[in-house]
Amino acid sequence: MRNLCMTLTYDGTAYYGFQVQPGGNTIQDHLEDAIRALTGEKVKITGSGRTDAGVHARRQIFNFSTESQIPIERWCIALNSRLPSDIIVIDAVEVSHDFHSRYAAKKKTYRYTVNANQFPDVFNRRLQYHHHAKLDIAAMQEGLRHFIGTYDFTSFASRKSQKDNHVRSVYEAWIEVDRSMCRDHPRDQGVIHIYVSGNGFLQHMVRIIVGTLLEIGEGKRKASDVPNMIAASNRSAAGPTAVSCGLMLWDLEYKKD
After folding, report:
1. How far apart are the first and last CA of the chain?
2. Domain that holds residue 39
3. 72, 19 Cβ separation under 8 angstroms
4. Residue 100 falls within a domain, yes or no?
5. 115 HSE (CA, 13 A, CB side)
6. Does 10 share its domain with 73?
7. Are residues 128 and 244 both part of a single domain?
8. Helix crossing, 137-145 with 205-217: angle to 10°?
9. Which residues belong to any copy of the Pseudouridine synthase I TruA alpha/beta domain (predicted)?
10. How many structural domains compose the chain?
11. What is the pTM of this model?
């Protein structure tokens, strides 16, 4: 029996998230179907984490056990020929039998993209949230810094969260602004990329952080309010949940062994 680890990238627009759901049409469903079509085996893959419906991944990791002797260098092309065009396997390696793609991950990074120009980008509209009004980006940056640290993030978790423990550590959080697509017009502010890195994230956590930052950018809340929101440990204390299309699982860091 072999344990194979693969790196995946996908546009999640058409899917109900990564993990298997009763209604089907998830990334996991398509991967397991492709593996079964290739090897004849009915396998269950293990992902590094879940992504919600409509959320994308630049770098998602999964592993699974197989008796297939297909050479490792042939797996990517073989699976991609059996997957939809918006799901692509970009790397495959054989790992030790005790490797677990979720438990071995020590840092995850998400990126949320807000188009703050006056008009949407027709070519990237599936990967961005277009904001209707100007934002105070400096205030958003100030607010984001308050999330760095180890806290109980109950205020920033979905009310449907089934986790017993809502304590998580945010290692880094920063904003980058790409103005390359701005017109020579005072209304265009560029494309805002919000990055959040940590040891793990609760359901909707990054999207609620972004929804709160957008309210700060709109002047509806103050950046200095964030510590009180966290301390409240109450979902109603924080801002709304930002739409899913702007969120992407950006990167994963694993232990060297």
Report:
1. 20
2. 2-95
3. no
4. no
5. 21
6. yes
7. yes
8. 140
9. 9-103, 145-254
10. 2
11. 0.95
Q: Residue 125 corresponds to which tokens in the numbers above?
A: 């509209």
End residue of a domain, out of 95, 114, 132: 95
Active site residue 121: no
Q: What does the buried/exposed string (b/e) look like for 191-202 if buried means 16 or more CB atoms within 10 Å of the residue's CB?
A: bbbbbbbbeebb
Same domain? 207 vs 239? yes
151 is in an annotated binding site: no
Residues 159 and 231 in one domain: yes
The structure tokens listed for 174 are 């920063």
43 domain-assigned: yes
Q: Are residues 139 and 231 in the same domain?
A: yes
The one catalytic residue in 33, 52, 86, 178 is: 52
pLDDT digits (tens, 9 = 90+) for 128-152: 999 999 999 999 999 999 999 999 9
Q: How are the residues of the chain apportioned to helix, strand and coil, as percentages rounded to the nearest 5?
A: 25, 30, 45
Mean pLDDT computed over every residue of the chain: 96
- pLDDT tens profile 164-207: 899 999 999 999 999 999 999 999 999 999 999 999 999 999 99
Q: Is residue 148 part of a domain?
A: yes
Q: Which two tokens stand for residue 26?
A: 């998830």
C-alpha closest to that of 91 among 74, 111, 109, 70: 74
SS3 172: strand
| Cα–Cα distance list, 148 to 4, 49, 145, 244 (Å) | 34, 21, 6, 22
Q: Is 49 in the same domain as 157?
A: no
> Does residue 28 lie within any of the structural domains?
yes
In terms of Cβ atoms closer than 10 Å to its own Cβ (0-12, 13-18, 19+), residue 77 is exposed
Residue type present at position 148 = I
